[in-house]
Amino acid sequence: MASNAACIFCKIIKGEMQCFKLFETDKTLAFLDIQPLSRGHALVIPKYHGAKLSDIPDDHLSEILPVVKKLAAASGATDYNLLQNNGRIAHQVVDHVHFHMIPKPNESEGLGVGWPAQAIDTDKLQALLEELKPKM
C-alpha cells in the first residue's frame, strides 16, 4: 500500500503514533478524533495514502461507508454529519484522505454548517448537465 513517511495518518497506520483505534481492516482504520466537535467524533481513513479522494483506488474506498455506518450505530448518534474535504481551500488540513463521522446531538455540538445556496438558473444547470454527463 502506498504511504508517505511524513504523513501523520501514515504514521498512525504504521503504529509509529498513538491513536484511539475503534476499528481496523487490511484497508481501513477508524479512530477517535483528538479534537472532537462532539462526543463520538471519529475519523475513517483508507490505509492507502493519497491527498485527495481521486488519488485513492476504488477498492481502498469500498469499506469506508460501511465503517462510517458502524461508527454511527456504535456512537448512538441519530443525527450526524459525514465530512470529507479535498484541498486547502476546501478546509483539508491533513493531506491523507479522511472521513469525519461527527455526531450532532444538539444545535451547539457537532458540525456547524453554512450553506450559501445560489438561486436556481435552469439554463446554467442544463448546460452543466450536458458538460458533465458524458464524463460519467
From TrEMBL:
Its cofactor is Mg(2+). The keyword Transferase does not apply. Keywords: Hydrolase, Magnesium, Nucleotide-binding. InterPro entries: HINT, Histidine_triad_CS, Histidine_triad_HIT, HIT-like, HIT-like_sf. One of its GO terms (biological process) is nucleotide metabolic process. It catalyses: adenosine 5'-phosphoramidate + H2O = NH4(+) + AMP. GO terms for molecular function: adenosine 5'-monophosphoramidase activity; nucleotide binding. Gene3D superfamilies: HIT-like (3.30.428.10). Pfam families: HIT. Residues 8-111 form the HIT domain. A motif (Histidine triad motif) lies at residues 96-100. The active site is at residue 98. PANTHER family: ADENOSINE 5'-MONOPHOSPHORAMIDASE HNT1, HIT FAMILY PROTEIN 1. Belongs to the HINT family. This is Adenosine 5'-monophosphoramidase HNT1.
